[in-house]
Amino acid sequence: MHPCRVLFICTGNSARSILSEATLNHLGQGRFEAFSAGSQPAGRVNPYALEALAGAGISCEGLASKSWDQFVGDLAPPLDIVITVCDNAASEPCPVLFGNFVRTHWGLRDPAAVTGTPDAISAAFQRAHALITYRLTALLRLPVETMTPQALKLALDGIGTMSNDDD
To answer: pTM of the entire structure?
Structure first.
C-alpha cells in the first residue's frame, strides 16, 4: 500500500495547513504523505509558521503557499484523506474539494489573525502547532491501512473535536 496521502486545506495556505503538512510528514515517517493547499493561497508561508516548525525541529524545505488546483484532475496525486482546518467559529469559509477520499474538518483558530507584539503572535502559532501535533499524534495511532472509510471518517471526526485539554 502506498503511504496514506493526506491533504490539509484552508483558505490562505500560509499557516495552519502548512503547519499540518510539515508536521505530519515529519511524524509520519513515510507511512503518511502530507500536502497542503488553499482555495485563495496567500502566496507566501507565514514566517511565524516557519519559526514554529523550526523550533520543533521540523524541516521547512519545500513548503509553499499553493492552490488546491494542483490536487484536482488527472495529474493530481490520489488522496486518501482531506482535512479542512479553517475555523467555523470565526465564520471563515472552508473550501470544498470533491473526490473519492475521506473528508473531515479539524477547526483551528487562525494564528495569523492574532495581532499584538511579536511574542504574542509567536505564542499563538506555538499554541496552534501544539494542537495540530496533538491531533496528528492521534491520527498516527489509527490503523488507517485496515480501516473502512466509514470507520476512518468517524475516527477522524472525533480527532477534530479534540483539544490539548483532552485526556
So the answer is: 0.92
